[in-house]
User: What shape does this take?
Amino acid sequence: MELQAEVIINAPARAAWALLGEQFGKIGEWAVPIDESSVDSRPGPGAVRTCQIARFGPFPAGTIKERLFEFDPMAMSLAYESADGMPAFVSRAINRWSVRPETPARCRVRTEATLELSGPVRLLAPLLAFKLRGDAARVLDQLCYRVEHRRPHPSKLGRVK
Assistant: This one.
């Protein structure tokens, strides 16, 4: 299953990259589905981010580990794959993020996710894709708000621990 989404952010590309790339381990500070997050080293290939998640799409609350396998600060892009904690019906999950300047004060953030489903759940792929697209759009909205306003989205404020 392939999912793509993007958002235009009224801020310089470097500001969006600072949050997504340089602060890769701090997604829990702004994304509502992530209660807490940390990274085991500086962001770069091989770094592992651990996320305590609330429910997200078809995924129950729990702990997910994600391993960076591409990290390019010059191109403002990164890619990571699930390393542990995904439901059994997900045999592989990869996410790619990129930040592209549109103007000096505006950028485009794009995410592309690939999920390989196993077992009978594959039959529900269109329904899962619909749910995940909606949840991903909300996370992009939270990212946009965080970059533009320099504070978490109001929906995050009640959930911060």
Summary: The beta strands are 2-9, 34-39, 48-53, 62-72, 77-84, 90-103, 106-117. The chain has one domain: 2-152.
